[in-house]
Structure formats: structure tokens, C-alpha cells
Design goal:
It contains 17 helices and no strands. By secondary structure, it is an all-alpha fold.
């Protein structure tokens, strides 16, 4: 197989996941300086199911607001466009596809790993305190394995072959993909992210989470997602389709200030945040 053949197969899939229309409109609206809280609130509120999910997540211990936020507009005023946009995206992706029958990889386990990676990325960003948008880091980690979602749900023959290679070689999922396909899920994830018109920084995080030094421009998201993926694997929450832990790139660790004490501290903080993120994990289980 080669990337051209597989991409043709992917683009021919009629059920290729798409973001709900309202989510696409929200992503566009939040890019405009002319958009106000009421505009975005009206967009989200037009989808009752999305509204319920967003308000539940906004009011979860993960965000820690002492008073209940009752409306989407109030949430935007309190949290800002960026955070609410990213919550909308998170609330939407978990239910966009369903676990296929007889799959060799659990979609629920994959989303649990992805969510944990997002939480780790958020904590790394807090640890660095470099002024980056910590919620964008959360979403970058959450979406890093989008390509695996496509392979699991739409290319069962490839998923089975990769899983068998993982078992035989006792290797990482992406290493097994590279051996069979000459590329891995990061490339597939980029194809979908581009289709969704996600911002370039998020796409770079998806593209380079296994090869962070290949990142172009602002490398912070790619470096953070790479480190987040490794630390999430070490925490052993969910699964990326194998039971291995990738090696943390030494240059990335140096750039992000991730020495052993810092990693230990972040891992402890992440375990606390995971307890607070129960509503996110519940959403994964209710959708898959």
C-alpha cells in the first residue's frame, strides 16, 4: 500500500467524519473581530444537544467556577471565545463516529488516551507559563490521534493488519503503520484536519507529534503534543492501540523544561485534573 492509494480510499469514504454545521459556523465566527458573545451564544444554542453538553462541561470541576453558569452567553463572557470554542470542539468530536464491530482497537480507549493527552498538554502549558493559550493546547492533545479514528472506523483491513503487526513485533502503533503503509496515522489526521479547516497550529500538532523536530514555524504545539502523548502513555489511561511508551525527544524535553522533577510534578497534577474531568470521560463512554 502507499499513501496515494490510501488517501484515495479515505477520500472515497462517504461517511468520513465531518464537524456539525453549527460547529463549523462557530469556528468561523470566533475568527471574526465583529463577532460578539450573543452571536456565538445564539449559534451554539441553536443545537440543543450541543448546548447541554457544553454547559455540563463548562460547569464541571475541570474548570472550577464556584457559581453555576446557566447560559451559553454567560459562559462566553466568563470564559472567553477561545475556551468556549474549544469546549464545543471537544464536545463534538467524541460522538462523531461509533465503535465498529470486531475492531482490533477500542475507540473508547483511544479517546480516553486522547483526552488524557489533552490534559497533560494543558498542564505542560501551565507549567511553562509562556503565554500560550492553554485551552488550545488541550484541544491539540485531544485531536492528535484523529488519523487513528479514521483507520479504526473506516479502514478495518488496515487496522487489523497494523494491530497484527503490533502484536508480532511488540512495537508502537505508528511503527507498525510505517512498516505496512510507509506512513502513519499522523498524515491521515492532517488530511481530516485540513478538511475541517482547523487552524494551522493544531494541524502542525497532529502532523508532528511523533516527529516534533520536523515542525515548522511555531514549534510549541508540536513539542507539547509530543511530550503530552508520551506522558499520557506513561500514565496508562486509555490506549493508543499498543502497550508501548514512545521515547521523549531529548530536544523537546530541554525546550519545554521537562526534567525528571518537572515531569513528576506534572504527572501528579494530571492525575488530579483527570478526577476533575469526569464529565469529559463520561461523555466519551456515553457516545461510544
Amino acid at each position: 500500500m502507499d499513501s496515494f492509494d490510501v488517501r484515495n480510499r479515505i477520500e472515497a469514504i462517504e461517511e468520513l467524519p465531518t464537524l456539525p454545521v453549527v460547529v463549523t459556523q462557530i469556528l468561523q465566527a470566533t475568527k471574526s473581530m465583529a463577532t460578539n458573545a450573543n452571536d456565538v451564544g445564539d449559534l451554539i444554542s441553536s443545537d440543543q444537544s450541543l448546548t447541554v453538553k457544553v454547559l455540563k462541561l463548562v460547569n464541571s470541576p475541570f474548570y472550577g467556577f464556584p457559581q453555576k453558569i446557566k447560559t451559553i452567553t454567560h459562559a462566553i463572557v466568563i470564559l472567553g471565545f477561545s475556551k468556549v470554542k474549544n469546549i464545543v470542539l471537544a464536545a463534538s468530536v467524541f460522538g462523531m463516529v461509533k465503535q465498529p464491530k470486531n475492531s482490533t482497537v477500542s475507540l473508547t480507549d483511544l479517546w480516553e488516551h486522547a483526552l488524557t493527552t489533552g490534559i497533560v498538554c494543558r498542564q505542560i502549558a501551565k507549567h511553562r507559563n509562556s503565554g500560550v493559550d492553554i485551552e488550545e493546547m488541550f484541544v491539540a492533545g485531544l485531536l492528535h490521534d484523529l488519523g487513528k479514528v479514521i483507520i479504526i472506523c473506516n479502514l478495518p483491513d488496515i487496522c487489523t493488519a497494523v494491530s497484527e503487526n503490533v502484536r508480532k513485533k511488540d512495537c508502537l502503533f505508528y511503527e507498525a503503520e510505517n512498516e505496512i503503509l510507509n506512513f502513519s496515522h499522523d498524515k491521515v489526521g492532517v488530511w481530516l484536519a485540513e478538511k475541517w479547516n482547523l487552524n494551522p497550529a493544531l494541524i502542525e500538532g497532529i502532523k508532528c507529534h511523533h516527529d516534533p523536530l520536523a515542525a515548522r514555524g511555531d514549534k510549541e504545539i508540536a513539542f507539547t503534543v509530543h511530550a503530552g502523548d508520551v506522558i499520557a502513555r506513561a500514565l496508562d489511561i486509555g490506549s493508543g492501540g499498543d502497550n508501548k511508551i514512545p521515547i521523549l525527544n531529548a530536544k523537546v524535553a530541554e525546550e519545554l523544561g521537562l526534567n525528571v522533577p518537572a515531569i513528576d510534578k506534572i504527572m501528579g497534577e494530571v492525575l488530579i485534573e483527570i478526577e476533575k474531568a469526569k464529565d469529559f470521560f463520561d461523555l466519551i463512554h456515553s457516545q461510544n
